């Protein structure tokens, strides 16, 4: 199998859950660090312009969004599974937590460290990523609400742990644990664990659960440059899709489509539909720097439509 390559940056919470998943699976991987703020020309060449991080690369197959990255890791190494009690509950918890906690977590983060965030980062998130101002002064009026939301949702995690065991869905770690961990990790790592624990009323059940997850580590990792990653893609051919041609909306393989996140960073990727099912879609793009690529996306949280419709909607 080709090298497993993760394009990420250190403080990205979504990258942290993938780093932990790689460690949990015991997979060796290559690390390509990207800038928190675009431009990212090498990564754009691999993804067709997808705006978010992390991105997983295996040869000429590119996986965008943690949902489909988890699915790819399950295919590469089925055990230990990220879905020991089935996919449904873990995927639902993951999508809920990612979306429900993202803005409150940012609001609390900037309360503690907002003055240290570069202006270019703040401007990029306002203009191109989130669509709202995340500077400390802009977020400050809603801080009480953000604390209330994070406290409430964290108590739900406590209830799950009390009912199910050492992890959210039972005796074994699941993708839900990695997802629900990451925004609390972001806050505790950057704002001080003691301060966040006191602010949100996090008890030993939560902090011990987080310690169990952190102990997994990131596994065997070695550095790689963006140029080396591009060369690896160009030297490879995309794998035959593991999913069929079964798009639930009836879009036929060979159709030019756009794939766009439905929440933020709404930058469409245009490619030719290769294969699809209810959980994943694969589009082909031709990149001068990296050759022919298959770019994989999840279905939940993304819009896949024929490119002509997308162009008409944008007009």
UniProtKB/TrEMBL annotation:
Residues 2-81 form the GST N-terminal domain. PROSITE patterns: GST_NTER (PS50404). CDD domains: GST_N_family (cd00570). It holds the Pfam family GST_N_3. This is Glutathione S-transferase family protein. It comes from Albidovulum sediminicola.
